[in-house]
């Protein structure tokens, strides 16, 4: 018999998590053979190892949804159970530990598990997939894990400052103020894994950098974990410049969505170009995620499929 305890700070959150007359709890117990009870400000789960792992992951995900939206509907519970179990055994692969208090990030789909495994086993990984598949989040999590394990000395998070239908020139403020919105998603992911003071300290000590792609020119980064996000918006020349910044003992992860290219018309994306150029390079790994790997709100899967379907009909 295995056991797990999940802390829940707010008693009101515990009530919402269980649902009216414990209907959410019963739905989980009907889907997975576990016992779930509340003990003060925590939830206790017991059963076999596999079932406890699945039930714990479901409850952690539901806690996150509840914290973000303030409510929890039965269809969200059902979708989360489906995402975690999928009618298959749990995803194989050890969790990614992301901070000093032992918080863990787990792959929720087979595609995500392949992605995390590829990052751990290769020094150059490209990941292409639609919005909501965890491309950036999992890359940042594995970078923080590597930093904690002292496998690298520095994390560098990079994004191209490419306009998506809006002009940079009309944004208020100086250059730094103009580029900050482009870097915000990387900072958001980072701050989910470290507290504010820890992030600030690492940035002040130059252990973590969050910078626009243009600032990479002329540098060589040794013993660094370098992540290029939104790579579909790089040109071929920019991608070459970025990849050649890689120094000794470094790891590079490049992620993007080939369906959301914001480059000028007739400009070739450095992401799709590099995947073709590097496919026979030893040490390179390419992972493709699909709409089945989307782990945001259940509607995101439907939105992505609707747009992909519309694109196919136009061809």
How does the SSE layout of this entry go?
Layout lengths: L1 E6 L3 H8 L4 H9 L2 E6 L2 E6 L1 H21 L4 H12 L10 E2 L6 E2 L4 H12 L2 E5 L6 H14 L5 E6 L15 H17 L4 H9 L3 E5 L11 E5 L7 H8 L7 E6 L13 H9 L5 E5 L9 H17 L1
Parallel strand pairs: 6-10, 6-11, 7-8, 7-9, 9-10
Antiparallel strand pairs: 1-3, 2-3, 4-5
Largest sheet: 6 strands, parallel
Q: Segments where pLDDT lies below 50 for 5+ residues?
A: 163-168, 311-315
Give the class from helix and strand content and strand pairing: alpha/beta
Q: What strand line-up does the widest sheet have?
A: 8-7-9-10-6-11
Secondary-structure element string: EHHEEHHEEHEHEHHEEHEHEH
- How many H/I helices? 11
Could you give the count of β-strands?
11
Q: Tell me, rounded to a whole number, the average pLDDT.
A: 81
Instruction: Please give the radius of gyration in angstroms.
Output: 21 Å
Strand content: 15-25%
Query: What overall form do the CA principal axes indicate?
Result: globular
Q: Helical percent range?
A: 40-55%
Give the termini separation.
55 Å
């Amino acid at each position: 018999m295995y056991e797990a305890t999940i802390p829940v700070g707010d008693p009101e959150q515990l009530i919402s998590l269980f649902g009216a007359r414990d209907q959410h709890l019963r739905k989980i117990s009907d889907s997975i053979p576990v016992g779930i009870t509340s003990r003060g400000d925590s939830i206790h789960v017991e059963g076999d190892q596999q079932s406890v792992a699945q039930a714990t992951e479901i409850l952690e995900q539901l806690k996150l949804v509840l914290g973000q939206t303030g409510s929890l509907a039965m269809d969200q519970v059902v979708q989360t159970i489906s995402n975690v179990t999928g009618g298959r055994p749990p995803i194989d692969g050890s969790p990614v530990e992301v901070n000093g208090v032992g918080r863990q990030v787990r792959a929720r789909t087979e595609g995500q598990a392949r992605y995390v495994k590829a990052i751990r086993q290769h020094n150059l990984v490209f990941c292409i997939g639609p919005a909501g598949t965890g491309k950036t989040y999992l890359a940042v999590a594995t970078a923080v894990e590597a930093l904690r394990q002292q496998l690298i000395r520095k994390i560098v998070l990079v994004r191209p400052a490419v306009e998506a239908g809006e002009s940079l020139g009309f944004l208020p403020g100086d250059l730094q103020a103009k580029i900050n919105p482009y870097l915000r998603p990387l900072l958001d992911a980072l701050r989910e894994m470290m507290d504010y003071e820890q992030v600030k300290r690492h940035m002040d000590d130059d252990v973590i950098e969050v910078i626009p792609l243009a600032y990479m020119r002329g540098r060589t980064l040794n013993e660094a974990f370098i992540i290029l996000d939104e790579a579909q918006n790089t040109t071929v020349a920019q991608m070459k410049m970025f990849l050649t910044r890689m120094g000794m003992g470094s790891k590079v992860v490049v992620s993007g969505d080939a369906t959301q290219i914001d480059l000028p018309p007739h400009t070739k994306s450095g992401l799709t170009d590099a995947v073709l150029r590097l496919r026979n390079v030893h040490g390179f790994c390419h992972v493709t995620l699909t709409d089945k790997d989307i782990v945001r709100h259940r509607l995101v899967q439907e939105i992505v499929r609707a747009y992909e379907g519309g694109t196919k009909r136009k061809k």
